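Q: How would the structure tokens look for this protein?
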Amino acid sequence: MIKSIDDRRVETVLNAFDTLFNKRDYASAERFWSPRYIQHSAHIPPGRDGLFGLVRTLPATLRYENHVAAATGDFAILHGRFSGHGLPAAWIVADIVRMEDGVLAEHWDVIQDEATGSNRAAVCRCSATASWPDRESLKEIRARTQL
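A: Here is the predicted structure in token form.
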């Protein structure tokens, strides 16, 4: 089966994240990130070196699990979960990446703590099989949380 350009972009970004965050193979990860990489995240230092430097400081238990990925044009978006980073709650993250010449050139993200137990107002979790609640469930959730 022939893969589309968008499929290849998704595959590249997923391989990049796995190589850096899960395998911690910095030499191999360099081939996925542009040396001119632009970082727009407020909690990550600038550039490829800033990102790699941050990852080096995180616990070896850090893991990235992807749940949804899509690409169009020069952009790929990932929705996944970072755990084992040393904070009380895992992060649910939407990563937006601009590709250039086959490598990650620019990055934005939206991060929130994973909703679990008492801090969870809804019944959904980040998973490949999650589904939105039906209308009756939403009414029940709103009533409980007074939305």
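The mean pLDDT is 85.

The CA atoms of residues 35 and 79 lie 25 Å apart.

Upvote if useful.
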